[in-house]
Each structure stands twice: as C-alpha cells, then as structure tokens.
# Entry
Amino acid sequence: MTHERRPIDVLDVMRFAMADDAQLSPDGRTVAWVKTVIVPDENRYRSQIILTDVGGASRELALGTHPRWSPDGRRLVFLAPDPNAKPLAAPAAAESPLDRMAQLWSIDPRGGEATQLTRLRGGVAAPTFSPDGATIAFTTLVHPDRGLEVGDPVDDADPYVRFNRDVLIVTRTRWKSDGLGLVGDYVRQIAAVSAAGGPVRLLTRTSNDVGAPVFSPDGRTIAFAGNERPRGDQERRSAIYLLDVVKGGEPRALWWLAEMRGTDLAFSPSGDRIAVCGHDDAPKGHYGFQKLWIVDVASGAGACVSAQHDVSLGDYSRNQDMRRYGGPDGPRWLPDGRSLLLLSNERGTVNLARFDLDHRTFTPLTAGDHSICAFTRAAGRIAYVQGDHVTPGDVWTIPEAGGSPERLSDVNAAMREEVELVWPERFTSHGSGAAVEGWVMLPPRRKPGERVPVILYTGGGPGGMRASVFTHEWQLYAARGYAVVNCNARGNYGYGEAFSDATRGRWGDLDYQDNVAFLREVVAAHPEIDPERLAVAGGSYGGFMASWIAARHPEFRAVVVDRTLFNRYAFGGTSDIGMLLDHIEFDGKNPWEAPDEYLKWSPIAYVDGIRSPTLVVHSAADYRCPIDQGEQLYASLKVLGVPTELVRFPDETHELSRAGRPWHRVARLERYLAWFERYL
Amino acid sequence: VTPPRVVARDLLRAVGVEDPQLTPDGAAVVWTRTRMVAAEDAVASEVVVTDVASGAERVIWRGRGVRLVRVAPDGASAVAVVAGMGLVRFDLTRRDVDPDAAPEMLSADLGAIRDVAFAPDGGALALVVGRLVGETRASALAPAGVAEGVLRTTRLRFKRDGGGLIGDRFDHLLYLPLTPGAPARLLVAGRVDVAGATFAPDGGSIAFVADLDDPEWERARRAGVYRIDVAGGTPRRLARFADVRAQGLAFSPDGRTLAVTGHDADGFGHYGAQRLWTIDVASGARRALTRDADGTFGAAAYTDTGGAGHQGPVWAADGGSLLAILSAGSAVRLVRVALDGAITPLTAADRVIAGFDVDAQRRRAVVVAQPRDRSADLELVDLAPIAPRATEGGKARAGRVSVDPPLASRRISDHGGALMADAVAATPVSVPVDDGRGPALDAWLLLPDERFGARVPVILYTGGGPGGMRSDNFMFEWQLFAAHGYAVVWTNARGCQGYGDPFCTAILGSWGGDDATDVLRALDAALAQFPRLDPTRQAIAGGSYGGFAAVWAVAQTDRFRCAVADRSVVDKIAAFGMSDIGPQRAFEFGGARPWEDFAAYRAQSPIDRLGGVRTPTLVIHSAEDHRCTVGQGEALFAGLLTLGVETRLIRFPNESHGLSRGGRPWHRVRRLQEYLDWFGRYLQAPAGR
# Structure
C-alpha cells in the first residue's frame, strides 16, 4: 500500500457497483452480465448489460437486466421497462406492481437497436429460449378473468370502473408478495413469444403461481414447478409439471417434493431426467437442507442423490448489501449426463463443485473464503459471480475441467483504492453447547490502548447463512469506531442440517444462547473491545433476536430492531409467507389452534424486560414482516417508558437495506449511526 | 325480477349540510354544503349564507376542502380553513361576492389548523395548530425531496385515523391577533396536545382541554381543563376528568362558570356517559349537572350521509341554563338543561339532531336534523317560547326529562330528498325486544316494499362503537339494501350509549358476551314478530366493532348464510399496538397490557375462535385505517382461506376508518356494491342451497 485510504462513509453506499447474472455465450467465449450502479441525482439504480470476452475486452450493451443468449448466440434477450408505458388517469394502487412491470427486449449482441418484444401488463420474468431459438418462454402475471392484457391499458368510460381500479379484490392466499407488491388475484403463468416478435401466447391457465419455465432439449416439453392441488397455494410442497408444447393441453404433475427450489429445474442433456434441489422432509421446511434429486421423466420416479452429504445446495449466503439480484444458482448438467455443477454452502462460504452421479461425490471447482451466488456454463467453461468480505461481487470464469479462476471484471477497483476496508477475523465460540462460528470486525483506526464499543449484529433468516459477503453497513460501523460481531448461530446453514434444524419452532432458545455466548467470548478474547459498551442490532429474524436479547440483557446500551417479527400470533395472517412459515414453526397448527405457543415464542411476551434504548426501523410496504410488527414493538416500548424512536420508511419493502431507494438507504444508516453515537 | 328503485351509485346524489352557524343577530345561517363530483371522484364544497327571513341563499365561495368556517362576533365576516390555502376570510356583508374568486388570505403557513375560535371582540383568533416538535428529519445528507417521506417519531400517538401519520406533530395553542402586522403568540407548545380552545367572555383568557401535568399523558385517557391568559404565562388547571369532550367547553356569560362535557368514572373510558358539568372558574370547584341515566351529551347516533355541526353546550343568554344535544334512549335531541339538572327537550324524537348553533340572544337555533325518510337538512327552531324552568331545589331527581311538546321547527334547506329521488324511503318500524333474556332493547326493522313478496331475507346489522348508539334516522346503506329486497334489523345492544352507565359498561372487558346475546335477541324478536322475514335466509354485517360482532357471531353459530366484516377488529393483542387509540384501551382488559394478560385480550378476540367459522364472509378494509388497522382484516381473510371458508377481501387504498361516511365517492359506491353482490350471492338463492 503506497497511499493512505480514507475511512468508508455513509454516502459510499451509493458508490459501489454491483455485478450480477453472469451468462456465458453458447460458444463459451463471451459473458453477458449486469452491472448496476446508483444514480444519486435520480435516486435510483441503473443496470447495464455488459459483454466481456473471456480474456478480452468489455463493451456496454443496452440498459436492462436478465440477459439470456439465444442458442446460436446471435441474439440476446433481456428485461427492461417499457419506455412508452402510458400511465392511466386513475392508477392502480401504489402498492400494485402492475403498470410498471419489466418487458422483454431483444438485441444483437454485436450492437444495434434493441427491439421490444412484449407489452404485457403482467410483465415478463424468467425468460428462456427454446432449444431451436425460435421461441422465448417466460412468466407473466395474468388475471384469471382478464387473460393476457396486451398493449396500452384503456381507461374505462364508466367512472365506477375507472375510479375503482385501485381497489384490490382478492380471493386467493398469495395475494401479496414482498418486493413484488400487492398482486391480488393475478397469478403467475407461463407465456411465450416468437423470437422475431409477434403476439404473445399464454401457455398455462393454472389456479396457482408457477415457477420458471424450462424447455426439454427436444423443445417439445416445458417443465415448471407448481402446485395445482385444491388450495395448493396454501401448501409448501411443489410438483414438477410437464407441459406438452406441441399438443398443448393441461400440464401434468410428474413428481412431488415437500420443499422444492422452483427456479432449479434442469433437464439432462438427453432429456430423460430432471435435476432439482430440495428435500422431502416436510416438517423441516426451510430448515431442511436442499439436496440434489434426479427425477426420471418417463416413469416419474425421483430419488435424492446427495443424501450422504450434509450440505445445502444453491446460494444461501446472506447479509450482503451490495448485490442486485444474483442470478441462476441451481444445478446445471454437464454434457456427459453423469455429473452436474452445483453451489455448496459450507461454513460461511459458497463454492462451485461438480457432483458425480455415479459415485455420488463432490469435487470442488473453486475454494476459498468467498461466496459464489450465480453461475452458468457453456462449451466447457463456467462463468460465475463471486464476492467476499471486501468485494461486493465480480464476474469470474473457470474451465469446467478445473483450473485457475480468471477474474473478468473489477467493478469496484477505484473504490478499493480509495477506501479502507476491513477483512474480519473468524472466531469460534463454544460456550453454548455448540461450536459457533462467526466474525469480528475491529475498527481499523484504533488508537493504542483504546477500547471500542461493540455491536452484535444478529442475522436474518433462519434458513440461510452468514457468509463471506460484502456488507457496506458493517464496514461503515467499523470505520466509525465500532467493533462489529456476527455469527452463524443455530438455525443457519453451513454446519449440518441438525445445526440448522435445532431452532425450528424454538426461536429464542439455542440460537439466542449461541449469539450471547459468541459475543461474550469475543469480548473476552479481545481486550480492544469495551465490555461496558454493548449494542445489539438486527433485521427480520435478526430483529426478533435483537429484541429477544434486549429483553433479557439490560446491560446492552443500545438496541436497533429493524423489519422485525414481534407478535407471531398476528404474523401469520399478515405476512406474505405467514401461514407457510407458521406451519413449519408450529407443527402445522394455526395461530388460533396454538395461541400459547405462538405467544410464548414472541418478543411481545417479554417486552417489559427491555430497558435499553431501542430504535425501531420498519418499511411501510414490507409484506414479509409487516409494519404492524414494528409498530407494535414501538407502541409497547412507549407504553413502558423505554427510550425509543420509530423510523418508518414509505414505499419500501423488506429489502430496504439492500435494494431500497438509495437516499432512503442513506437515511437508514444515518439513523443507526445516530442511535449508536447517542448511547454508546 | 324487480329492478331496484335505488342503486348504489345513487349515493353520489348525497348532499351534506355541514356546520351551520347563525350570525349573532340571528338573521342568517352560514353553512357548508358538500356535493360529490362524480366525474372527478371528488367532493366539492360551498360556503352558503341563508337568509332566515326569506329563505334565500347565496353561495359566497365554492371549491374544495373548506372547513372550520367561523362567523365573527360582529357577523360581518367569517374565517375558514381551506385545504391547500390556509386560513382565509370571507366578507359576509357584500352582496356581489364572486364565489369563484380567491378568498382573502389571512395566513398560509401556520401549520395544520385543527380548531379555530374567535375572541369575543373579534380582534383575534385562538387556533389549535399541529406543529412539529424536535428534530424529525430522517436524513441530514439527502438533498431536498428524496427522504422527506420518512417518518421519524418519538411520540406514542404518531398516527390518527383520518389525520394520517402525524409523527411528532403536536396540537399547540396559538393566539393570532387579526390586527395587521401583529405577531402570532404561541401560548401552549411542546410535547402536548391541546383541544377545544374557548375564549372567556372578557377575551382575556382561553380555556382548553389537555393533560399538561402527566408526562405520560399519551398512555392515558384522563384530561384536564385549563385556562391560560392570552398574554401568555403558565396555564392553570381548573379541573380534571376521566374523559372530556374537547368541543364541549363553554363560558357562562359572566365568565365565572365554565360548562364542560365529560365524565369522571375512571376506567369507564368511552363507555361512560358524557355528563354536563359546571366548573367555578375562581375555585375550580366542579359540579355535575346531569347523571349517566339522563343519557350521553353529544350526538351519538350514526348515519352515513347528511351532515353534522357543533354539539354544545352553549349557555342561555341569562346564564341560567344550557343548550346541548342529548342522546338518550334512542332519541338524539336538542335540549335545555337547567342548572339544577332538569332537562327539557326542544326538538322532537322523530329526528336526530347532529349539530346546532344559536344567535347571540338565544332566540333561535339552527339544527342539522336527520329525519327517518330522508337525509339531513337544516332546520330553524324558535327558542323564544321556552322560558328557563324554575329550579327545583335539587329534588325530584327521577324523571327529570320533561315531556313537554317539542318546539316547532322549520326546514331552511332542501337536500334531504335528493338521495332517494322518486323512490319512497322505507320507514323503520320498532321491534320490541322484551324476552326476559336480558334488559328490554330498542330495535328496528326496515322492510322492503311489497314487490319483493311474502318472504324476504333479513340482514342483522351490528353497530359500531361501543359507546355509540343507533336510532331510526335515515341511513342510505339500509335503504339501498331494502330497495334490493332485504329486510334490515338493528338494535341498541348492551354497550350502546343512551341507556346509562350500567347498560353501556355491561360489556366493558367482556366483548362478545351480553352484546353478542343482545344482537341475536333483536334478530329473534324480529323473526318472531314479522313472519315475512325468511328464517332460512339470514345474514349478519357490520363495521368496526360491528365487524367484530359479525365475526364473533359466525364463530359460534351457522345460522347465517353469509357475513360481512367491514373495518373489523378481530385480534385485540395486535390492536393494542396498532390502533391509534390502542394503548389507551388497557382499561378494557382490567388495566393489563397485552403481555401482562394475553388471556384477557384473547378472550375478546374473534381470531382466537376462528376455527368455528363456516359462514361465507366478505372482508372489507381500508389500507389507511389507523383505528382498526388493515392487518386485522387481512389476518381474518388469511384465516378464513386457511380454513377453507368462502371469503373475499376488498382492500381500499388511501381510505381511512371513515370510508363508508367520508371516503372517495366511487370507493363508497364500490363498497356498497360489494355488499349487495355478496348478499345477492348467498341470500337470493332458494332455501337449501
């Protein structure tokens, strides 16, 4: 290091670039990926598709996301807004995603103008080319009574209709979705359009949402995940459905799994098998590990092939705040039909591995203290997105046969030179009956002998993993003189399924003990940390944990509870995943069937134990942990006379800290810092 | 099929007659008329001056969002608050006013004005203004305009149904001289709310309602009556009550006595009858003029169209009695209350009085009157014939409500008939409920006309509150149902005001007990007395607490073919921390907060017994309902879906708890249509579906 780097600051949250969705061209020579930057003046994100030749130059293509190559590599489709979308005089509800959905575009990767292929009110997601390149299938939101709504919406002449467009009429369970918004009775369906453009055809008319479409290699079948049983949208289980593209007709359920990653389906090269990740241990729900299953298309017989490996597959790295959307992270077949590429979660890292079906063995392709969140393969090569504690994410490539990874992008090179970043220390505690692994970040600019306050940051989930990812927020706190501590308490992936499952239905038991023991042992082992100046902060389940800890440990001087769960008795009926979560946590019982259990495991039951000043942060359009939860905590603290403040963000979702409007993210960080500064 | 003579969109013909005031000389009434603008989904308002002698009216201003019109003591002008403008002044003397011209601006930037009162000499105003206290910006770094929507609050009552998310805004008392150039004076500020500012007759001081002595006042319901010198200084508390109506302060003509509406029954909250009190301003000694058995002061009866106004009390010119609106039994009348507590009704029981004002000499009153067969109009009541009754020395306390014939009244507006146009309104009939299973109840039945045949389905409509009441005044919603062939039954179950504290407090801490029994008793009585009601086609519907009652009922009985739960509360634990008045309601659970006694809260929560519901239930809720928050309706809907019960959620954005009365016009029409569609689906089918 030849020059002095400056401390990272709040506004730097807008200066990091994000790399997502590395898509290798069919010839394996070029990666299409998405670079997202923040435009502070416009208070928004700007995503650009970049083409980078392996070992060569980069060039910018259109603005958009989700690039997908045609099989011949001569076209690229992607998603972008409709520039000509006409707002109606009376808009749909602000919380409705309709009227502002992304559309499908097509462009020649060598350059030129992009062509808009769709104008669908229900938008486009998960585009995929048919093997012959003639068709692009995708999902779109469709109202059962209205069918595909194409082109400009027309204002109704009748004011009764016009002025009631914003009224939401709902008859189904999954009518709201955090991030997407209030979809009401719109159901996600599969549709297709010719690569040359033209009318859109609706391929499914299911009662419930379907997953991403996947073509069989012969192009005659589309597979997707769904559940068409009566009241199937109240169930967690899914089936692989097959739709005959040539003959049409109703989709046929091939094979069921209690927990299925609906984005994962992958046909084997010959089309005789489908790979998917999930598990069939229904009571375990999101605590169960995602294993690899191979399903025989002809017979519908499926089997788990990775059962003997106690690892979860797919990207479960959590807590990053500089990733836009990742990209595909499911299994991909190798051409031999006998092995697949997978992401494997272990001890806070996510790495690429090859799984051999004959020997049922994993062979690591990458190794290191980092997290890979998405990958694609073609022509003997893999492209992927990788980040770590000090790197938000970049595009990498590696030969399928193994070899040295090659970095294709360095989107934050300038920032890395400019600001000081801390690589955290790994630490393991043992005082809670389990080895609990986590990280300690110490402020980089401590004066000799200085003792610093510490923030225990409790993680979200459960059903994910604290990992080697870049978290601007924590770097910021470290730069401001706070030690930041977080761990993979029980309930997290990466340490075996039993470790993950240990907190099912018992949030606040072993996971709580793990967090407290971890902090205690970190403090004991670090004389730089002042044991008198403790704070605890967390979001979502981490907010739950922060308030749970605060209620039992008045010694914490400051508490931040963000997007929390507080009253689980009221949670089930208001969260977008409420009942689906509850039925795992409470043995299939509804709130009114086990009220004592729901309340016993709710912070509201212990809120009168909180003495520490507590900042409550919540987003108004958070449909995962609805604003009701944060407001109930705030009101309870006010009634109890505990110093508190509520910060309520309008028009933001559960994802505010990672994907909210840039200036709202700035405001959120300012409020955290002010709280810590005031009380620590 | 008989085409209905009234349809949901007829609601758009509704005209509101709001907030009438007599000029001091009694020669004119200044009032606000509201009309719905269908093409723009908006409500237009006009400031109208009606000449009492000729009945001629002139519109002096028209636009949108005018409120708090207050006539100056000299009658020559009026001030008002106009949305998007601020405080304005209208000239009442000029005959040639252009109603479309911009009014004279008095002040644009005082804040959110919540109350306005003239000083007796007309030279100043007392304003209650919502003002931000402390640093509430969420971001010091963000440029203007990008983070202002973030709410940062440290107050408990940071939201108000209808008023939205007010954050750290508090209602302060401001003294505003109307002399040009004279600065406004902030009399009461800080982290307190004041309400009901009222000048003493000498103009030297202002009385108001607040709680300045308890730092934790936001958690409590108690309130005090204070007086502060207009020059400033420290407010002096005159008296403290368990509950005070903010708009119920009035100084006697000599300024020595302050009349107050409230009660002092700790723990009764909104279940306690509002009584009239006098406070000796010098000593603070207070005296109750009326008893809970007399009824509750203020207009407690609900309706969905019409208008309202000031509810008193006001003093007689000689200071010997008070005029006020009293809700007693099922009647809501303008009454005179002598200082010994004797009560003389001044208006008839066949109409509900929702507001009134008097001239300086108290020779006449203008009232907002809601009859049975049409929506409200303004009526003039000549007060002269009634002399204040001689005091009775505090004796003969029983039966103090006089049975003297009411005074004659004269209608001076004619909008009440617009809603029904050429259709004939159905007339409610009284249904005696005296079955020995509880106290006798007032109940009513609205029957569809004979075109609908010998057997009609019946809707039991459960009322809101508790702590309100129903009468037999006009309600468009029920007329609409009747016009579609449904009979409607409603009652004043226990928990309603107007029958004394024991009747109202019978359900305090036990929602779903006597009240649930009573509503079914009323329905049973109607079914027994009116064979035209088809017992195989019953429905139950209600809003707010009435929504609670509907869900509670269908959780225990399958007698109803369908139910409507509108803006309901189903989970009292969540409501404690979510409702704008939730934390003040611990008294309904023995004083316990939820975490101290979950069982008490669950015992009054329909969600706790949802597993018993099999009745198809329509769920209606407004997204900005801060009273019964939308999560209540959403949790109910989710629970019903989980149980496999037929249901449908109608979620209105940008509407408050007041959607059915004050929502956007087309949303209101849509709501009514959803009710009709639901009833049509389940009640029109023949028996044995």
Notes: The radius of gyration of chain A is 25 Å.
